[in-house]
Amino acid sequence: MTEELRDPMGQIERERYARHLSLPDIGPAGQERLRAARVLIVGLGGLGSPVALYLAAAGVGTIGLVDADTVTRSNLQRQVIHDETQIGRPKVASAEHRIRTLNPDVRVETFAEQFTEDRALAIAEGYALIVDGVDNFATRYMMNTACLELGIPYIYGAVSRFEGQASVFCTPDAPCYRCLFPQSPPSDAARATEQEGILGSVPGTIGTLQATEVVKHIVGFGTSLAGRLLIYDARSMSLETVPVKRNPSCPACAAANRE
Q1: In what order do the strands lie in the sheet with 228-233?
Q2: CB neighbourhood size of 228 (10 A)
Q3: How far apart are CA 3 and CA 225, in angstroms?
Q4: Per-residue confidence of the chain (259 residues) as pLDDT tens digits?
Q5: What domains appear along the chain, each with residue ranges and CATH number?
Q6: Shortest CA distance to 33 belongs to which of 53, 5, 11, 52?
Q7: C-alpha distances in Å from residue 54, one per residue of 193, 208, 213, 215, 241
């Protein structure tokens, strides 16, 4: 929507965000921070879907959506922001439609294109952080580079079969994505979802964790996943976190003078 978000908070907003306003860690001041925030989501598949839905529901004021693909029926098993009526439409258009029906006060900015090296900074500039909803290392490296250059956090998520990971990279004292993955694995190690399969609820779990990290960062409460990698296994229903340290020889963040 082109009009400015209503200010100050009116009765509709107070009703919508009542459960946030009751939380001491958020309250009216935190809700205003959410309303003023600009968040970019790259990828509107299994991860980006729950992230976009929960951030819209939380009242994030501006959400940027980046995806070059269109909705297919095989997406619907896990990409819950889309539905049968949106098959064949661009994913950014489908997601925008759903966000507007969920929370019409959210401003949506769409980019029906790939997040490429040539376009990364132009797309990401002006956003407070980038959320990873993609399924390939190349785009993650580009998001990592953009976050380092712009000085904004990178909210990481990845899924495979029954497992998932989440973390926060590129904050001032935290490692970047290349500290954890200095080089792309061999191509046969990065199997496509359609080949290896995935339990539909797994990206929902990881995407919800990513959305939580976004809200925590914007509002400023809790302990961030920065410096830790969360690992989820749906088969054993286990969650663990392992420390991730900055690499002083990292080809990305060392070069960005973040030592």
Answers
A1: 107-111, 62-66, 38-42, 129-132, 154-160, 163-169, 228-233, 238-243
A2: 18
A3: 35
A4: 334 444 468 899 999 999 999 999 999 999 999 999 999 999 999 999 999 999 999 999 999 999 999 999 999 999 999 999 999 999 999 999 999 999 999 999 999 999 999 999 999 999 999 999 999 999 999 999 999 999 999 999 999 999 999 999 999 989 999 999 998 876 544 455 567 899 999 999 999 999 999 999 999 999 999 999 999 999 999 999 999 999 999 989 986 654 4
A5: 11-243 (3.40.50.720)
A6: 5
A7: 24, 7, 11, 10, 23
- The residue to which tokens 């070069």 are assigned: 255
Would you call 248 helix, strand, or coil by DSSP? coil
Residue in the block written with tokens 């959305």: 211
Dig out the tokens for 88 from the structure.
Answer: 């064949």
